[in-house]
Every structure is written in structure tokens, then in C-alpha cells.
Amino acid sequence: MTARSFALFVLSAIVGYQPLVYAQKKADKKMVAQLEADITYLASDELEGRRTGTVGEKKAAEYIEKAYRDAEIEPYNNQYVHPFHFIYGKEIAPATYISINNVRLQVDEDAFPLPFSANKRVSSDILPDIMEQGSIWIIPLYSDQGQANDAYFDWEKSIYERGKEAAKQGAAGVVFFDAFGSKYEPSFNRHSEYDAVGIPLVFLTNKAYQKAIAKKDGVSIDMDITINKAERTGANIAAYIDNGAQYTVALGAHFDHLGYGEDGNSLYANAKKEHKIHHGADDNASGTAALLELAKWIKKNKKLHHYNYLFINFSGEELGLYGSKAFVKDKMMDSAHIAYMINMDMVGRLNDSTHALTIGGIGTSPAWSEVVDMGGPDFKLVIDSSGVGPSDHTSFYNAGIPVLFFFTGTHKDYYKPSDKAELINYTGEVKVIKYISNVVAKMDKEDTKPRFTATKQNATGVAKFKVTLGIMPDYTFESGGVRVDGVSDNRPAMKAGILQGDIITKLGDNKIMGMQSYMEALGKFAPGDKTKVTILRSGKEMVLPIELSK
């Protein structure tokens, strides 16, 4: 017995000191220090919010890859970095210009083309109140000050409908303007669901209107409009422990965040005016750091050998689960190979008063009731049965894989620049990591795959209509039609034979170009109506009979 061991033996005899407790506390402090180091870097100004496709995202990816290398965890499929390409709505091409009376307007500040505008150059010398065939028309967007200040006025729909009508009547293009100075200034909507109109459509701010058109006897307009699909590239990071097992467990967390809020998803009130970094410490540097700790723990724990373990750090989550969708599709993640998936998104702000820990996906397998207990003194569990949620586990659930989702709750800093590393509850996050590690350990008792069960879900986005197909649309799909991300049990789509991955191109006689035309088509039917639905499956067109219901 060494002198230190003898001292601990004496101490334990005198005051009941337990060496294992001492060792555990030391390990917890070490984990806290590592979590703090990881989250502080990932949420630092240097990474500028880790927006997908930026230098900040790349730096975060390099940091995560180094962590796996240092832990001697091998890359997945011989590479840590798994790039993915995606279309993120539409964007105004740099070559676009709008000129009035030979003064070139600042695109996005003075004026902008609508996302459903035609790609075309047009010019006219016109009188502002004359609308002739073959010329550019100038039309007020608002009828009065009240409409201009109405928060519920659908300005985009108004422009779309009047633009379509102007095109029918022979207009070469339309410039819509704000004559009143609206409180709710319109902006380019990259995710507009309206179908393309055959002429250029432009919106002019009140300031630009007063300067360029108001009180002018004649106006010369020249505009060259190009709207492109916004192509982006991101990168997932994946590491792998191969135990030679039949099934693999996937553990994941996304590492991207909002950057400066450029994509319009910030909840910061002055996001448009103030160029501030959205640090994303809790969302989701906390989950990223937790995943790295779990990976190191699994690597060291030789008792965990009944499964292989796959660790995936996703990007593109904030934009619509692009990274996890690409990974599931490209790597053929399915229930034949993946036993289950655990996702950690925002696990860094455990409330010391409520101890609330949300666990989603409980209903995706009966196995979860055996391994998820009531949390003990550390947690008050909030249970959600659904396999669908606003994070990456949804992509795995849609592939028929049981999932669990861990989440410590939202807070006032959510989606704001103030989500910083110093606000993380590091000791609370350690408790969450330990809880998840217990779930992993309980599951790794034998080489079996937990049974998958589908959970109830609403058909997102179609609840206001009299009928529904019972699908979950893929809102990230930008190539014409509506791609099916999920099919609800015993609903019209399932009964008709529609499958996940099918692209709906027609409902009855209604052509489906995107979500807008899809919703318009649904509005034309009533429960009990029988029609046909046209789909593309693996590039082949199929026509299926369908009976619509609520």
C-alpha cells in the first residue's frame, strides 16, 4: 500500500471518506473544464456564429475533427469530413440592376426584385400613371396609410396576384412602390412559395420612390433581373468505433448556428440593423461538446461492445436539417443497420430550480420505457413521445429508426447574440451527459435492435384546409413539386401508395410547382372527393387514385 493509499484509508475510517466519490468529483471537474473549453471556442467571436458554408463553420469542423483524432476515434468511411450540397431558396444575382432616370438604385436597400420575378431585362420611358401594353407599369403597393401599417396585410400575395394580372394584360414589367412609408417594410423572401410570373416584378421603398418617381412628369426605367437558386455547401463530421457488431448506434448533435443572422432566422429585434454575431453557445455548441465527451467515454469503456458507434456532428440544421437529411440519404442510414439514434440539441442550460430535462422520441420504441427512468434527484423529466421535432433526429425517425432527443429547454437568449458560453450551466450539462451515458450503457447489453414504432404526427402546413394527404412535406426541396418526407399511418397518401421520397407534381388537374401551389390545390377539395395524384418515384412518373379526407 502506498503512502497516499494509506492516508486515504485512514481518512475514510475517520470521516467516512470514499475514494470513488473523490475520483468521481475529480472526473466531473475535468469534464466541466473540457466542456467549457470546447463551448468557449465554438461560441467565440472567431467563429462568427458558425453559419453553414462559412469560414466559421470550417473552423468549427476542424476543431471537432481534431478532437476525434486526439481521442483516437477513427473516421467514418475513411473520412471525417462529409460535404453536402443543397439549394437554400433563391437569391438575387449580383448582376441584377434597377435604374430609374439613369440613377442606379441600391439593390436590397432602395429596391429589390421579387423571388417569383422573371429573369429578363426590360426598359421603358413612361408616365407614372399610364399603363400601356409592352411598357413597364408603376403600381402603388398600398391603397392607404392604414393598409401600409397593417401588420397582417399580405404584401407578397398582393404583388404576386397583381403581377400575374398585369402580365396577362400585356405589361412588360411592374414596379410596385410604397407611397406611405410602411412600418413593416417588405424584404426579399428567399423561401417564397409562389410560382414564377412571366415578367420582372420589383418593389421600391418609400425613400427611393420619393426620390426617383414622386412628382416626376416622366420616368425612364431600365432593369435587368436575375433570380438564381441559392446553392450552398456544408460539411458534416463523422467518427466511428467499429466493434464488428451487427448494428450501429448513431449519436448526433449539430454544430452550425446563425452566423450574423443573415438568413433571417434571428429573434434579435435589431438583427437587420445591427451586424452582431449569434454565438450559439447553447444552440448548439453545448450538444457538440456533449457528443465529444460521450464519444471519448464510449471509446474508453471496453464493456460497450455489442454495438458499433457512429458519432455525427451535423451542419445545416438551422436552415432545415439539411446536413442530417443528406447524411441519412447519402450514407443509406436505415433500420436494417442502425439500431437507434440519440440527438442532443441545446443541453447546456439546465435550470437549477426546475431541473427540467425534455426527452423526445419516447414513443419510437417500446425499449425506451425500460431504459429511461424518472431521472432521480437530478431531473424532472418532460416526456414527448413523438419522433418528429425541430432537430436532426427527425431525419433518422423518417428512415424508420428509433430515436431519443435530449433538450434542456429554451430561454431568453435563444436565437440571439446573447447565447454565450458564460451562461452555460456546465455542472448541469455534466449531469445530462451522465444520464445519456447510462441510457447507452443499459442498451448495450446484447446485440439486438430495438423495435421501431411510428408515432402520431400532424401533417404540417395543411391543417387549415378541409382535406389533407397526411404527408410531411420536405420544405427544403426546391426542384419543382413537393417531395414527401414522411407519410402518416392510415391517411389518404398511405392508402394511395405514396411513399417517402416521392415527389408530388399534380393533384387532380392542379399542377404542383411548390408548397404554394400544393396548398392552393388542397383548398379546392372537400372530404370524400376522389381524384388522382401524379408523383415522380425514382424519376418515373406514376398516377395513383386517391380519396381525400380530413
Q: What features would you describe in this structure?
A:
The chain has helices spanning 3-15, 19-42, 55-70, 145-148, 155-168, 206-212, 281-300, 322-330, 368-371, 393-397, 426-443, 492-496, 515-522, and strands at residues 74-75, 81-92, 97-100, 103-104, 111-113, 120-126, 136-140, 173-177, 201-204, 219-225, 227-241, 248-254, 308-314, 338-344, 356-360, 380-384, 403-407, 471-473, 482-487, 503-507, 510-511, 530-537, 540-547. The chain is of the alpha+beta class and 550 residues long. α2 (19-42) packs across α7 (281-300), α2 (19-42) packs across α11 and α7 crosses α11. Strands 1, 2, 11, 12, 13, 14, 15, 16 and 17 form a nine-stranded mixed β-sheet that branches. Strands 18, 19, 20, 21, 22 and 23 form a six-stranded antiparallel β-sheet that branches. A four-stranded antiparallel β-sheet has the order 4-3-10-6, with no helix packed on it.
